[in-house]
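Researcher: Here's the sequence for the chain we discussed earlier.
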Amino acid sequence: MPKRMKAIAIAAGMGCVALSGVAFATPAAPPATPTAAPAPQAAAEGAGVSNTAPTSAAAPATAAPTSPLLAQDGAPATTIDPNVGLPIDGRIGLQPQVTKNGEFAHWMHNDVLVPVITVICVLVLLLLAWVVFRYRRAANPVPSKTSHNTLVEVLWTLGPVVVLVLIAIPSIGLLQAQFKPAPAGAVTLKAIGNQWYWTYQYPDHGGIEITANMLKEKDQVAPGERARTDADGPRLLAVDNRIVLPVGVPIRLITTSNDVIHSWAIPAFWMKLDAVPGRLNETSFTIEKPGLYFGQCSELCGARHAFMPIAVQAVPPAQFAAWVAAKGGKMPGSAAPSAAVIPQPGAVGSAVMREEAKDARTIVGPDNSNEPALRPVTDADASLLTTQGATGNPAGAGNAGQ
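Model: Thanks. This is the structure I predict for it:
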């Protein structure tokens, strides 16, 4: 009997060992299912073929903070060209232009205005030298009493008139081109000036909103803030969130302000448009070359006027469509003109009023009697309140850390 019990005990122990091996065994992982790569964006037409960004190709459907389409500042990764789009120490003259209006203005400045000014200055200098030498007291002890000379008077009247007319012809054409309305299919960008930062809206692309603050130097940032690097741009011109615009597509620029007069200016675009409180100013332009372009507020707007930089990243239309999708926006119809309502700051339906209403879980909107009305917030309203804050700057909008 003892031998039989011993055999049973040994058999039971071996069974426990076998069961323990089953319990702790790791099942083999199932083979990974390959993930289909996102469809590539449609190729953009040439600048002379179409003014509309292609919208037929599918872009990434969801916006993710770690999307490879977005760099740290929320724009596609790119490299700065040290000779285009930014000021260069020691350079004399205008920046290289990347718009048709800029190229025309560059030609007019270099080939029309500068030669005319040079000829006039040299002519006046020679006339003064000749008068000083010819009519000095030693050479002309008895001055002439002539009071009129018809030929001279006609020449010095008609000469400047002819010069002004010749200058006015290209000048008027340039002014007309600068304020030509944007065609159908243009990308609408609204730039709102604040003391002292910029807010941007894409009303035709799902209500994307971006706040851009200047990036400070390493010795100026607070803990947790992102400092400027050479990849961001030059000192005082780099921002934490660049705006992205397509190449070869007309841009409809609208400016306004929330406080005082600002001015949105990019020298490489030949662009300077004032942002006036209570007013919408509008112009259009078309960027012809991809790259990074920097500018500043060009209207004295207070103590930190010098710290309101502008950074524009121009990319191919297909990449712009992918960026819009990564931001959670959507591309509009292929040829539809902008029909977005762009209210003034503080007006009924404006972003400020919507934010205030959002805090109260209500939304403000006009009714048939043109009086403000309140209604519950819906999911459709959330897209109007989407913002892209100051990446890496926890202080948020308005000169982060100031």
